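Quick one: structure for this chain?
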Amino acid sequence: MNQDIGRYSYLKHWAIAMGLLLLTASLCAQLQKLYSESHLAILVFAFITILGILFSTLFAWLQVETKNSYCSSWFFTGFLSLSLVLCSYLDHRVSIDLATVTDVNIQLSLYQRVVTSDLTFWIAFVFPFIFSVMYFSIRSKVAKTKK
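Got it. Here's what it folds into:
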């Protein structure tokens, strides 16, 4: 009985995360079609969907282990989704002045380096895990002080 409840909770956290990331994959693919080469949109969709499956699997497990609410899954995964869509949009829209190219080096501003960096994309996936653990530790400390 208790194992069925845990499995149901896991599946619900997984469905929340995966649903939001499928929506994100669709939006990022549409941005790719709109602002760049449209034939790469399917690759963007597939890439974010596969990452979404991996993320959802690990994140749902963490949410169940820390006994976080479904609302926190919505919030943390929503943050990731908005971050990915924003990164995708800014990556397409940031202007890089090729007139400033000297030899092989491109002089980019800090904003341009952050927006076009692959590290920015990958760091976005880490934040929901950090937020989830922080939320759990804050809840645990509050529960201990109430006793």
